[in-house]
Write a structure and sequence with these properties.
By secondary structure, the protein is mainly β. Helices cover 5% and strands 45% of the residues. The strands form 2 sheets. Strands 2, 4, 5, 6, 9, 10 and 11 form a 7-stranded mixed sheet that branches. A 4-stranded antiparallel sheet has the order 1-3-8-7, with no helix packed on it. It is globular. It starts with a strand and ends with a strand. 37% of the residues are buried.
Length: 126
Amino acid sequence: QVQLVESGGGLVQAGGSLRLSCAASGRTFSRYGMGWFRQAPGKEREFVAAITSNPSTTYYDDSVKGRFAISRGNANNMLYLQMNSLKPEDTAVYYCAAYGSGWFGQGFARRGADYWGQGTQVTVSS
């Protein structure tokens, strides 16, 4: 099992950047595929990005492709989401997630994960 704690959310103006971090517990972090999801008020939780175990493959939702970048640091059990060119529609609670499988395709990544963090709020003002 893995425990996840997000940080780095906040308030930013449109066009700005934020970097989310997720600290994971456990000595087998490198074996997990990891991802980010988000949930806006009144909407269902949606897939944002995912990264498989090494060798890493990344997947992105079309709404964030070219603006967001997911990365991982296996040495320190960290997951990151660099968010650039933020838009008001990116406003949501962002959740760090861990998959039970280390390698998967985009379809699997989008369906949901096995472990979740508590979420961090990202607010983008226009």
